[in-house]
Amino acid sequence: MIRLSTVFWLLLVFVTGFAMFTVKYAVQSQEDELNRIKRATIAEEHAIRTNEAEWAYLTRPETLDEMNRHYLSLAPIATKQLRVTVADIPLRPQGPALAEAPPAAEPLADSGPPSAPEEPAALTVQVTPAALRVPTTPAAPGKPARAADLAKPTPAKAAVKPAMPARRPTSLDELIAQVAASR
């Protein structure tokens, strides 16, 4: 009969061979997964380089200008589009901070086809160099500054008066209202 030690060694060789077979195929599976991930990484890097090249092409000034003309037809901002006060901004809701601002003029309703809205004359602002100067003597309340005061040059220190707000604004509307009030 076969001795017990021979059976033990045959069983040990069989288990070791099976374990090596299993480990070999597990390692091959991991290598296949690693190669798949490397190929996917290379494909992603290629896609990123392609997207960067497309972005560089699309953001060139010539290309942007061509797309603007074809799709948007935007133009530089005209002087008449600039607004002086917060209340001049169209379609702005009147909040509690803007309650003292005069309401915008309502367009007249007509039965004809809709047309482009015309700028009211009250919202058009003409800025002249004389209007940009700060008067050296303050005008009396309710009385406009004299043209002679506006024509005088003012020293730089007199023109700059840092106004400290009573409190920090908690919203953008409050900040805009403070800036508008300081003008």
Word description of this protein:
By secondary structure, this protein is an all-alpha fold. The chain has a domain at 4-72. It has six helices and no strands. The protein starts with a helix and ends with a helix.
Write the layout of secondary structure elements.
Elements: H1 4-58, H2 61-72, H3 129-132, H4 147-151, H5 156-159, H6 172-182
Summarize the structure.
The protein is an all-alpha fold and 183 residues long. It has a domain at 4-72.
- What is the quaternary state of this protein? single chain
> Which structural category do the helix and sheet elements fall into?
mainly alpha
| Strand elements, count | 0
Q: Helical amount among residues, as a percent range?
A: 40-55%
As a percent range, the share of strand residues is under 5%
**Count of helix runs:** 6
Summarize the biggest pleated sheet.
Answer: none
> On the 0-100 scale, what is the average pLDDT?
74
Note the run of SSEs as H and E. HHHHHH
**Backbone shape:** elongated
Radius of gyration: 39 Å
Low-confidence regions: 119-125
For the termini, the CA-CA separation is 113 Å
